[in-house]
């Protein structure tokens, strides 16, 4: 089993590779919600500025997932965890689905992650009035795509239990968000439960998992625990070092 953390811009890294190697991508790109200046999250990323023009942001993601498609084996899968901006008013998930289909990814499922958490309701829009109510979203999306075919093109060993399969094959997942961001040292993390479910449901033991936005390397931790190889890209040297410490100590 091999775990690699690459300190590089994922787009530049992917452009250097010619041979498909990815069985499964599990990632959560920056949400473009102005992290650091967002009133609900005052902690910015280390290097990345989370406030692109929306069209520029979507085009940037498109270029990355075009490269991931090129380097994914036939039948390989791609899972994208994303939230919509401004209480659902900015349909980021829909825009991602649109461009993924346009670059030939096959939609496989759309999982709703019910976090059962909505933060402090300090802004209600129009209070007890239909004038302009606010609709906070206590959920995020896990968009799942396949390359060329929805069926894996080779046989392997699964580590799924009967109970896991029955529960996780419903496209509504309920588990809490990560609450240790400050302790771990990364401002935007998904909990290890998210990549664990994606990895077990969508790949054989021994598969190669890729995460182009590694952050604190949670996907790598899950892959290691589940006996998969993992390659992670992270532009921040600080986050790469954080991820390596987690892999050494967790």
Kindly list the characteristics that best describe this protein.
globular, 250 residues, 8 strands, eight-stranded mixed sheet, Rossmann fold, alpha/beta, 8 helices
Secondary-structure map:
Layout: E1 3-6, H1 10-15, E2 22-27, H2 54-70, E3 72-82, H3 92-102, E4 105-114, E5 139-147, H4 162-168, E6 172-174, H5 181-184, H6 193-202, E7 208-211, H7 218-225, E8 229-233, H8 237-249
Parallel strand pairs: 1-8, 2-3, 2-7, 4-6, 7-8
Antiparallel strand pairs: 3-5, 4-5
Helix pairs in contact: 2-3, 6-7
Which geometry do the CA atoms define?
globular
Global structural class: alpha/beta
The low-pLDDT segments are none
CATH class of one domain: Alpha Beta
How many strands?
8
Q: Per CATH, which architecture of one domain?
A: 3-Layer(aba) Sandwich
Number of helices: 8
Structural overview:
With 250 residues, the protein is of the alpha/beta class. The protein has a domain at 23-118 and 135-204: Rossmann fold (3-Layer(aba) Sandwich), CATH 3.40.50. It contains 8 helices and 8 strands; from the N terminus they run βαβαβαββαβααβαβα. An 8-stranded mixed beta sheet has the order 1-8-7-2-3-5-4-6. Strand 2, helix 2 and strand 3 form a beta-alpha-beta unit. Helix 2 (54-70) packs across helix 3 (92-102) and helix 6 packs across helix 7 (218-225). It is globular, with a radius of gyration of 18 Å.
């Amino acid at each position: 089993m091999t775990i690699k953390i690459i300190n590089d811009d994922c787009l530049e890294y992917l452009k250097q590779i010619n041979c498909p190697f990815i069985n499964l991508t599990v990632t959560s790109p920056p949400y473009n919600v102005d992290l650091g200046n967002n009133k609900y999250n005052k902690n910015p990323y280390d290097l990345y500025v989370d406030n692109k023009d929306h069209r520029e942001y979507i085009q940037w993601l498109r270029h990355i997932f075009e490269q991931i498609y090129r380097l994914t084996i036939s039948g390989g899968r791609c899972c994208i965890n994303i939230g919509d901006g401004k209480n659902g008013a900015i349909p980021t998930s829909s825009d991602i689905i649109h461009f993924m289909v346009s670059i030939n990814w096959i939609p496989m499922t759309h999982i709703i992650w019910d976090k059962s958490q909505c933060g402090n309701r300090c802004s209600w829009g129009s209070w007890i009035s239909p004038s302009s109510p606010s609709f906070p979203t206590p959920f995020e999306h896990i968009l799942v795509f396949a390359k060329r075919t929805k069926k894996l093109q080779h046989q392997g060993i699964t580590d799924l239990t009967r109970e896991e399969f029955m529960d996780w094959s419903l496209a509504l997942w309920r588990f809490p968000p990560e609450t240790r961001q400050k302790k771990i040292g990364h401002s935007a993390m998904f909990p290890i439960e998210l990549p664990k479910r994606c990895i077990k449901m969508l790949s054989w033991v021994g598969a190669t998992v890729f995460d182009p936005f590694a952050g604190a390397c949670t996907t790598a931790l899950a892959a290691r625990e589940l006996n998969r190889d993992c390659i992670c890209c992270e532009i921040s040297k600080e986050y790469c070092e954080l991820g390596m410490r987690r892999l050494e100590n967790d």
